[in-house]
């Protein structure tokens, strides 16, 4: 007996649901494989980076201490990571030792609209600080955060708690993945981009992220460290 029109429609629907389920499964499996591979690349890359760059770390530490002996070499700050989880992020200190105390007076001079503070001629930045910021060397201690699993080599910039307090639900979508030492925003002229542009670039990265994109962004970051852009 030939199948009825209703039976044919049911088979088409069933086949469509099967295809959707198969696609969904493949997508999830691909994402799991990517996350596992990304974590492996992060861990190995961070360890190699710390070992190979240890002479540079020593030189920068000496320069920081010579300019401002009162402050510490490293700067620890609470940032917000994946799923809005706070963590301690490490950087080379690029500002005077009482920078946080001076911040309140400078907030009115913020040059970036939105939940982020940027000031091109920030008086808190030391001479050594200007150099390590322009070359992004101040970010290198974050390799320790990568080893600890709090950050990735590539991902959105980790925001401050006071910035996240001003986030909309849309802005918070960038917190669905691990923050990175570098990322699409960081290599796209970060200091010249608005807060909204940063959000869009981060969400673009999250949507299209993959190992090859991560490698390309890391290579672009290395190029910027050698040939600095307009970061400050």
Strand order of the main beta sheet, please? 1-2
Q: Would you list the SSEs in sequence order as H and E? A: HHEEHHHEHEHH
Number of helices: 8
Strand content: 5-15%
Question: What does this molecule look like?
Answer:
51% of the residues lie in helices and 9% in strands. Strand 1 (74-80) and strand 2 form a beta hairpin. The relative contact order is 0.12. The chain has helices spanning 5-52, 54-67, 99-106, 127-134, 142-147, 161-164, 195-208, 211-226; strands at residues 74-80, 86-92, 152-154, 180-182. The strands form two sheets. Strands 1-2 form a two-stranded antiparallel sheet. A two-stranded parallel sheet has the order 3-4. The chain has one domain (39-226). The chain is mainly alpha-helical and 232 residues long. It has eight helices and four strands.
